[in-house]
Sequence to fold (590 residues):
Amino acid sequence: MLTGLTLTEARAGLAARKFSARELAQAHLDAIGRLNTALNAYITVLPEADVLASADAADARYAAGTAGIMDGLPIGVKDLFCTKGVRTTAASKMLAEFVPPYESTVTANLLNAGAVFLGKTNLDEFAMGSANINSAFGPATNPWKRKGDEATALVPGGSSGGSSAAVAAGMALAATGTDTGGSIRQPAAYCGIVGLKPTYGRCSRWGTIAFASSLDQAGPMTRSVADAGLMLEAMAGFDAKDSTSSNRPVPAFHKAVGKSVKGLRVGIPAEYRAPGLPAEIVAMWEQGIAWLKAAGCEVVDVSLPHTRYGLTTYYIIAPAECSSNLARYDGIRFGLRKDAPSLDGVYEATRAAGFGQEVRNRILMGTYVLSAGYYDAYYLKAQKVRTLIKRDFENAFENVDVLLTPTAPSAAFAQGENMDDPVQMYLNDIFTVPASMAGVPALSVPVGLNDAGLPLGLQVIGKHFDEETVLSIGGALEAAAGFTHTPSVHAGAGA
Amino acid sequence: MSLDLATTRRIAKLARIGLEENELEATRQKLNGILGWIDQLAEVDVTGVPPMVGTETETLRQREDKVTDGNCRDALLACAPETSGPFYTVPKVVE
Fold:
C-alpha cells in the first residue's frame, strides 16, 4: 500500500527501485481524488501533470544516482507557505486569489531535497485557531471517528488541521506545518501522527505568511519520529533573509532516533497536572512515564511555576504581533480590495470583507493591548511574564534533559463543540503554548487510543537546539507504544 | 479592565476594520470575555524582570549595505488588485 508508507520506507523503496516516484505520486493523487471531498484537507491540489512531472524528475535523479534526502516523496504543504506560481491563501478571503511571485525558504529547501508537492493543505485562517473551523474554504475534517459513531464529524485540530488530516488519511506521506502556540503538535495528537515544532530559529520564516513573528516556527508532520527528523533536516538551515534564523549547523536529526535513552533524565512538571484533567489523559501520561523508566530513563519531578500564565500571556503577545503583521493587508498592494470613496474607506471595507471573525477579533485585541494607555498594563507586562516562563524552562533544564507532558487536555472534539466561548477553545493549547513562549523544541508522539477509539499524544519538550534528545526520547516512546492504528477514513480502507 | 462601546469603536478605527454599528456590541462582549480572563496576569509580580523580546536565541546580524531585493517591480505589481502603469492606485487623498 503505497499510501501507507513512512517517508523512510518510501525513500528506501524508491532507492531500491521497487516502485517509481511516479507510481507513488499517482497513488496519492488517486487517494486525494477519493477522499478530499469528505475531509477537505487540501485547499488546492496541484494539477496532475505538474505533480507527475516532478515525480518523473525525481525518478531521473534516482536513475542518475543524484537523489536528495526527500527525493520523490509526495507531501502536502500547509497553505501558509508561499509557493511560487501556486495560489497561497492562508485560508483567508483576503488572499483567495494570491499567487506569490516567490518561494518560501522552507518549501525551496524541500524542493531542493527532491520532495514532490501534492497541494496546499487547509488551516485556520492565518493559522489562528485550534480546530481548523476558521477556514474561509470550509473546515477540514478528522479522518478518525468515535467508535460506533461514524456520523459525527470531529475536528482535526488546528491550525495545521489539513496537514494532519492528510497525513493520517494517506493523502500525503508527510506535510509541513507551522506552530505558533501548538498548531503542529495539537493537530498531530488529534489525528494520531507525529508533529515536531523545532527550536525557534531552526527553520527560516521567510516566505511563510506571518501571524506572530516571535513565536511562528515551521516543522514536519509525519507518521514516524524518524520521519520527523529526516524532514526537519531538509527544512532547516540558516537563511540570511530571516533575521531570527539560526546559523547553527543542522545535525543528521533522523540518526537520533533509535539511540539509547538510558540514563537520560525526564522531568514531569507538576503544574501540568491541571485540575479537571481527564482520567484517560492522566493514565496515558503515567503509561508514558512507565515506558521511559523501562527504557532506562530517570524520571524526576520538576516545577514550572508560571505555567498557568502561559496561555494568558500568549493571548496578549500573539494578538499584538498579529495586529502589527496583518496591517499589511490594506487592499492596495496585494490581496483583496473593496472599493470606497476614501483611502481609509478602502482599508476599512477591504479588511472587514477579507478577514473572518476570529482574525478580526485577534487584530482588535492586539490593537487594544498595544494602544496608548494600555501598552504597559498588557503588552509590556506580558513580555515580562514571558521572561519568567522562559526562566522556568531554563531552571528545569539544569536538572533534566527533557520534559514529558500530554500534548492536549482531550482527544479530538466534534465540529461545533467549544464554539461559543473563545477562552474554552483557547484552553486546547494549554500544554503546548508554554514551549512556544520559551522557544524550545517540542514533539508530539501518538501513543494510544482512548475509550472512544481516538488517538492521544504525548509531548516531549527539550532544551533550545536539542531536537536530537527530543527525537531520541520520542523514538523510545514510539517503540514502546507500537501505535499502528489507522483512522476509519483512510486511502487503504475498503480498497 | 473592561471595554465600553466607544473604546470598541475607537479600536476598530485604529485597526481600520470597518465594523457595522450592529456588530459593535457583539464584538465588545467577545473582547471583554477574553480581557476578563487575561486580567489574571495582574497577580504576577514582575518587579525587576526584563521584558522578553523575541526568543533571544540569536543576536541580530548586520549585513552588507547593498540592495538585495530589487528589480522585481513587475512581479510585485502583478499581485496588486489595481495598478496604473508602474504604480499602485488609491482613491484621491488630496482635494
Summary: The domain at 2-264 of chain A is CATH 3.90.1300.10 (Amidase signature (AS) enzymes). DSSP finds 15 helices and eleven strands in chain A. The longest strand of chain A covers residues 442-449.
